Amino acid sequence: MKKLSARRRHPLAAVVVLLFALAVTGGLYAAFAPADTAKADDTAQSLAIEEGKKLYSVGCASCHGTGGQGTSDGPSLVGVGAAAVDFQVATGRMPLQQQGAQAPRKKAIYTQAEIDQLAAYIASLGAGPSVPTKNQYSPDGADIAKGGELFRTNCAQCHNFTGKGGALSNGKYAPSLEGVDPKHIYEAMQTGPQNMPSFPDTTMSEKNKKDIIAYLDTVNSDKTKSPGGLELGGLGPVSEGLFAWIFGLGALIAVAIWVAAHTAKAKKS
Fold first, then answer.
1. CB under 8 Å to 130, separation ≥6 — which residues?
2. Mind giving me the DSSP string for 5-56?
3. Coil, strand or helix: which one is 156?
4. Running DSSP on this structure, what letter comes out for residue 74?
5. Which of 183, 191, 182, 188 is nearest to 218 (CA)?
6. What is the pLDDT of residues 224-267, one digit of tens each?
7. Is 262 annotated as a binding residue?
8. 47 vs 12, 39, 60, 115, 137, CA distance in Å?
9. Dist. CA 8–CA 234, nearest whole Å
């Protein structure tokens, strides 16, 4: 008993016990938790890729090739990333109904779970932009004024000042951004679908993308009303200005013609 008591009073006894406890705890954690979690994640990912490949073979391979390499009817999907798949399929643009100048937005035919599986398979073919998290595209806390400045500089040429959309060449068009899910707007900026240029984080930061989304959310909100009356699709002039130019100026021209005509008659008589 005296020897045991002496060992307990040894200055290094507490250190030895602490090190032993840490070693046991770390060993147990390494042996059970990480391995099981990683294995479960790998299994779930593998299953998603497998199911996504089945969906791809049925609905996409005829245009994009059996391995996503692309054909004369569809571009290669290698390296487009999960974000491109989520955008194109969730907005109904893909699968394409028929070949045309541009893929229109329509009702999605896949569930979100199936879209996630397709995205997992396409992402496995090559690295690309991933599906953004809610924190990345949520407009909460964003700078609306900065977003408006960025949108007018980079997007308004095609989408109009308030995102109402506009016509392009050869039957193409910039779609309206009213009612579009913020996630899909973020994905479009990341991937550059169809005629749109891409704005990766190296070109436009994540914060700037959130600012643009916040601006669009504000100008297209039901609570936001045009102070000038009818907004005329956000083309620029308010309805009163259009009325003044068309009817006001037209009335002045008509009066000028009437005065000139009666002046000429008076001179003849």
1. 81, 82, 83, 123
2. HHHHTSTTHHHHHHHHHHHHHHHHHHHHHHHHHHHHHHHHHHHHHHHHHHHH
3. helix
4. B
5. 182
6. 666 556 665 665 545 567 777 788 888 999 999 988 888 877 76
7. no
8. 52, 12, 19, 14, 28
9. 82
For 17, phi then psi, to 5°, come to -65, -40
Query: Apex CA 95: angle with CA 201 and CA 197, to 5°?
Result: 25
Distance, in Å, from the CA atom of 113 to the CA atom of 119, rounded to the nearest integer, reads: 10
Contact status, residue 251 vs residue 260, Cβ threshold 8 Å: no
> Is the four-CA dihedral 238, 239, 241, 242 of positive or negative sign?
positive
Instruction: Dump the DSSP string for 99-133.
Output: --SSPPP---SS-HHHHHHHHHHHHHHS--PPPPP
In the structure encoding, which two tokens stand for residue 71, read together? 């054909």
User: What are the chain's domains?
Assistant: 32-131 (1.10.760.10), 132-224 (1.10.760.10)
Q: Judge whether 10 is annotated as a binding position.
A: no
pTM of the model: 0.72
Burial of 80 (0-12, 13-18, 19+ CB in 10 A): buried
